[in-house]
Write a structure and sequence with these properties.
Structural class: alpha/beta
Strand order of the largest sheet: 1-2-3-4-5
Bound molecules: flavin-adenine dinucleotide, 1,4-dihydronicotinamide adenine dinucleotide
Radius of gyration: 24 Å
Largest sheet: 5 strands, mixed, barrel
Helix content: 25-40%
Distance between the termini: 64 Å
Strand content: 25-35%
Low-confidence stretches: none
């Protein structure tokens, strides 16, 4: 029986980065158990494949919409080959997976390809993909099993052609039309991808606005963009009642403002959230106490040290619910490992940036003026419209803005929201400002290079 200091179950961005830290920084003997591919959802079914598609789609749309205007000829007949695009995406994933495998090797982490199930504190059963079953022992277990698409109990959700993001990323034929149930992050990114490819997109969102967990103005601007640019239909406050088959495709039935609607499309994308992955996490012979590990709406409950209700079992990432983002999972894993081995958790979890890779990009960190108002905070807000930014004009950037919220008395930065080119890169400046307690004046002291998108930040603070 093999013994380890730490066994990590789940090789996504939470699990594999935590494993590396434990081995590299604390010299621990570490095993990583992963039943699918290294890199988890993020690399194989999430962040990286979607952004690879987005990269191509943005180039295509840019050339098609503006080729002639910017002096490029011959763009009339351009198109996108889904086959070539899928091949490129798969090559990217393979390259990055190989990178993680080599990091595992370099850091002497033993990778078990199979399903990990907890028998008890310090005991893990691994059902290897080869069919063999092993038992491993350890001092500590870190659960990083991530999440999977949640499929709401809608009649017809099981029909062929009703897909989750997992299947949507592997399409071999381009649909003519698609209905997206859920106008959250996944729904909006896919709407942007397919809309740019000329697919008729309909979004059906239960809440009264899309990307409802972000600032209102961002949601309103994105809705305008999706409808105006891509001709998408966006229904909010809409309750899906049924999906059924018809001669012309799948019919999604929903009610909106007490009126009934039906929309027919080739495919339906279920993008209604993700559920923490705790299925088959316990072995048949698991101890009773382990089987009763505390869960809250399916998520593993942890304290501020990422300890679960069972001694020496920790959990991080999507499986603990809350913010379901790759960089949050990684940060939690790093902090959990640091605390486990007696060091300080260095990463500030109070400022988690959130990004949406639409065109233009959306990014947010900290609070918005609306939230400040709800919380009774006295703030000032500075806004800069990107239409006056030289780099935006010369690169035919879209309507967009940068908004910064700061404490009225001290000028301390409390948050920023952006909808503009490179917003997902530029937001880090504000994450850092919040973490380092910088003020508006601190940012105004620095020179921003010209011409850049980022000089809009300098303009906003001045
Ligand atoms: P995961 O990445 O889900 O990894 C968990 C791993 O554990 C999986 O590989 C799983 O197979 C494995 N596993 C589960 N159970 C077991 C078991 N019993 N034994 C062994 N292995 C097991 N986030 C961003 O920050 N930016 C983005 O741009 C972004 N885009 C996304 C796009 C899509 C379409 C989706 C679906 C998600 C996206 N996310 C994005 C979210 C991001 O992918 C997740 O937040 C992140 O992957 C969570 O990391 P994790 O390590 O907690 O879990
Ligand atoms: P989400 O929580 O962002 O959005 C789901 C939406 O579906 C919500 O607005 C909800 O109101 C709606 N909904 C739920 N049930 C519905 C129903 N029956 N009918 C109509 N609408 C319904 O979840 P999503 O988009 O599935 O993404 C899951 C997670 O993946 C997100 O929390 C996000 O953190 C992560 N992600 C991050 C990305 C990024 O960082 N760029 C990209 C994609 C996903």
């Amino acid at each position: 029986m093999k013994n380890y200091d730490l066994i990590v179950i789940g090789g996504g961005p939470g699990g594999y980065e935590a494993a590396i830290d434990a081995a590299k920084l604390y010299n621990k003997k570490v095993a990583l158990v992963e039943n699918r591919e290294l890199g988890g959802t993020c690399l194989n079914r999430g962040c990286i494949p979607t952004k690879t598609l987005i990269h191509t789609v943005e180039m295509y749309r840019g050339l098609k919409a503006h080729g002639e205007e910017i002096g490029i000829t011959g763009t009339d007949g351009i198109g996108v080959s889904l086959t070539a695009l899928q091949a490129r995406k798969n090559a990217v994933l393979e390259q990055l997976r190989a990178g993680i495998a080599s990091l595992m090797k370099v850091n002497k982490i033993t990778v078990y390809e199979g399903r990990g199930a907890i028998i008890d504190s310090g005991r893990v059963e691994v059902s290897l993909n080869s069919g063999e079953v092993l038992e491993l022992t350890c001092d500590d277990i870190l659960l990083a099993t991530g999440s999977a698409p949640a499929v709401p109990p809608i009649k017809g959700a099981e029909l062929e052609g009703v897909l989750t993001s997992d299947e949507m990323l592997n399409l071999s034929d381009m649909p003519k039309s698609i209905t997206i149930i859920g106008g959250g992050v996944i729904g909006c990114e896919f709407a942007s991808i397919f809309g740019a490819l000329g697919v008729k997109v309909t979004i059906v969102e239960a809440l009264d606005r899309i990307i409802a967990n972000l600032d209102k103005e961002l949601g309103q601007s994105l809705k305008l963009l999706l409808t105006k640019r891509h001709g998408a239909d966006v229904h909010t406050g809409a309750l899906v009642t049924e999906i059924r088959e018809s001669e012309n495709g799948l019919v999604t039935c929903f009610t909106e403002k007490e009126q009934s609607f039906e929309v027919c499309s080739d495919l339906v994308l279920m993008a209604a959230g993700r559920r923490p992955e705790t299925r088959r996490l316990f072995a048949d012979n698991s101890s009773e106490s382990v089987k009763c590990i505390e869960l809250d709406r399916g998520a593993v409950v942890v304290n501020e040290r990422y300890e679960t209700s069972i001694k020496r079992i920790y959990a991080i990432g999507d499986v603990i619910g809350g913010v379901q983002l790759a960089h949050a999972a990684t940060a939690e894993g790093r902090n959990a490992v640091a605390m486990l081995y007696g060091a300080k958790a260095e990463i500030d979890m109070n400022a988690v940036p959130s990004c949406i890779y639409t065109e233009p990009e959306i990014a947010s960190v900290g609070i918005s003026p609306d939230i400040a108002k709800q919380e009774g905070l006295d703030v000032i807000s500075k806004k800069y419209t990107m239409s006056a930014n030289g780099k935006t004009v010369l690169s035919l950037g879209d309507r967009g803005f940068i908004r910064i919220t700061a404490d009225k008395e001290t000028g301390r930065i409390l948050g920023a929201q952006m909808m503009c080119e490179r917003a997902t890169d530029m937001i880090s400046q504000f994450t850092q400002a919040i973490v380092c307690e910088l003020t508006i004046d601190d940012i105004a002291k620095s020179i921003f290079p010209h011409p850049t998108f980022s000089e809009a930040i300098g303009e906003a603070v001045r």
